[in-house]
Amino acid sequence: MEIGPGTELEPARGALLVADESGRGSHRLVLPASCQTPLPALVQQAIDSGALLANRPIEGQVLLEAGAWRIGLSQLGELQRTLNGRGLELVTICSSQPHTHVAAAGLGILSQWPNSAAPTSPAKPDSDLQVHQGTLRSGDHLETSGSVLLLGDVNPGARISAAGHVLVWGRLRGVAHAGCQGDNFARIVALQLRPLQLRIAGAVARGPEGAPPAGFAEEARIVAGAIQIDPAQPVWPLSG
Q1: Where is the Septum formation inhibitor MinC C-terminal domain (predicted)?
Q2: Does the pTM exceed 0.90?
Q3: How far apart are CA 8 and CA 128, in angstroms?
């Protein structure tokens, strides 16, 4: 059996490892629509099967086509380590799941939406989560009745508010108000949290002035009646 560029290498459990046709050592790793096998084990099987069929180690860069898989930060980190241990580098994730995009951003991995288009309406599994693509500029105000995930920056002079959590995949430098209907458990999370003003329910605070911690997203929450800013938890507080 001859294995060449473009040949699809399929393990028994349904994941596909597809060699790049250009022969540059780049591969597509396509996850099945659903599977009971844990993700790292599923990926390990795909690599093993690909190497067996190709009769050589599979190395190079990987585009992970994750579809609707909901992959958290810790799970994605484990997957990244699994690939690195086999000489593979996860460079891009294609996903239709906002949670997976957030996790990718937390690890500095490039992510993209299918057909290069982010959803403009709430994701079905999370009916109270609104996803908005694009930077908010001075004078803009984005307000939602649930939680909001912004794929972009909030510039000085812009405002973002939500009855639930405010999640910013980018720099938050304007004004953010989470729990605007009185939810004291709401959080504000951003890749860089340097706002002019933060509000959670009735609590108000100014953003920190120092440099953000390297490699961490940041979150603001109410602790003992006051807003406290810390490195974000491994799982962002998305609803659902």
Answers
A1: 132-222
A2: no
A3: 39
